[in-house]
Amino acid sequence: MTRIGRVYLVGAGPGDPGLITVKGRDCLRRADVVVYDYLANPALLAEAPPAAERIYVGKSRGRHQLPQEEINALLAERARRGKIVVRLKGGDPYVFGRGGEEALHLREQGIAFEVVPGVSAGFAAAAYAGIPLTHRDYTTSLGLVTGHENPEKKMSRLDWEKLAGGVGTLVFYMGMANLELITRELVRHGRSPRTPVAIVRWATTPRQQTLTGTLADIVAKVRAADFKPPAVIIVGAVVELRQHLAWFEERPLFGRRLLITRAAEQAAVFQQMLEARGAEVLSVPTITTRAPQDWGPVDAGIAALPNTDFLVLTSTNAVDFFFARLRDLGLDARALGGVRLVAVGPKTAAALSERGLRADLVPESFQAEGVVELLRAVGVAGKRVFYPHAELARDLIARELRALGAEVDAPVLYRTLMPEQGGAELRALLEKRALDAVIFTASSTLENFVRMVGEDAAHLLEGVALASIGPPTTRTAQKFGLTVHVEPAHSTLDDLIEALVDYFTRTRHEPGMAHQG
Ligand code: SAH
């Protein structure tokens, strides 16, 4: 039986990938084909299965959009072949997006389709710029208007008199090229020249910028600031509320472009934490993990668990590799029986907790020194300690615990390697002066970073803030002649982020500087 294809016209939302609907995302996850254009955030494409066909249909600077008839034909053709087609459209598919034309074509062709609404740019821009589109004290009506009509036609289809006089808040899409005409016509038809106007570009993304003025002066301000599309123009008294309600651009790391270098598996959580504070985050891992060359020593330690007193794990990686190995050996957490679990810090403890295990001991300072102090206090003389660790880890724990009389088994549990790819990307980012800060959460990531970038790393890092999670990483930086600008008092991700916030609040160079060019 051949499967019957179907097209989903899905609103991608305005840019922030979090603003797609749950239903829209579900459609993407089931898609065989995704047809998208430049206002749909590329991050959303990652939701589609790897094997899904991804078709870009324009338009961006220079390149031309696929003609609408060809898009229509493409949607119909793939659906006829039994495919689940997601037509991903910026904002809402039925707001100035020609989604209506696509749907009519599909209906004519007898092809099944559904429409998943999206957060339209006007609504999103207003929300993220701090402008309630309606407010009882200001206005009770709202109009969405296309500003894209051909000026030669004298915007013939727009009834300026009714727009100017009859609608409270006006939101113009695609209006930047005609801004002068829009403001002139509104004033000519009775709107006060003092009416507030806000223009929001790249709304809901880290590049969001908002320009405010009045019908009288906004054109000059746009020119002076060289303010470019895509942008929506919001006209009306409600724009005044922005001075009280702005929030998105007020977040402490907004406009800062930060590079994180941790391993891919660990980057996502950190990235989200930074993004929550408003930063734009790029991730280029300078480290990747691999199994040890020889599992023998770890397996021997696992076999000896029944006679082991303490298991020390000093990273979430260690937890991951340890449990992966247990599983490969046909074992599970029960193998840990009476062993007491020592986690270096809350993240490692949380990784244990995900496996249904509670860490017995977690030091106050989340470092190797803390582990040693804690075990010194508990007493380890004559005890057996299993400490499988990263290759090249500092040997402090094993050495100190032995000095305390413990019998320490410390095999290599995983290796950390420098990725083969990424060096060129790092160099390009630094050469373009595209970064405000580079963040290192381990000595090894810094060391690899320098090796990947090359000898002139120090020179390329000029003007970029360097953030280090703690003293060992900072010492490595110094070894390479690099100055560390940000280091928290405690070596946790939360403290590191607070230190970054402090730093950027203090230095306050033009936010968004890194975004030029
Ligand atoms: N269907 C879309 C609109 C498509 S028309 C929606 O519902 O949002 C394209 C216009 O949308 C652009 O010219 C601009 O005016 C607006 N737009 C889209 N994304 C935007 C964004 N992130 N910031 C500001 N304006 C945006």
UniProtKB/TrEMBL annotation:
Domain Tetrapyrrole methylase: 6-218
Chain ranges of the Tetrapyrrole biosynthesis uroporphyrinogen III synthase domain: 270-498
Keyword S-adenosyl-L-methionine belongs to the record: yes
PROSITE patterns: SUMT_1, SUMT_2
Gene Ontology terms for molecular function: uroporphyrin-III C-methyltransferase activity
Keyword Methyltransferase: yes
Domain of life: Bacteria
PANTHER family named in the record: S-ADENOSYL-L-METHIONINE-DEPENDENT UROPORPHYRINOGEN III METHYLTRANSFERASE, CHLOROPLASTIC, SIROHEME SYNTHASE-RELATED
Listed name of the protein: uroporphyrinogen-III C-methyltransferase
Taxonomic source organism: Geoalkalibacter halelectricus
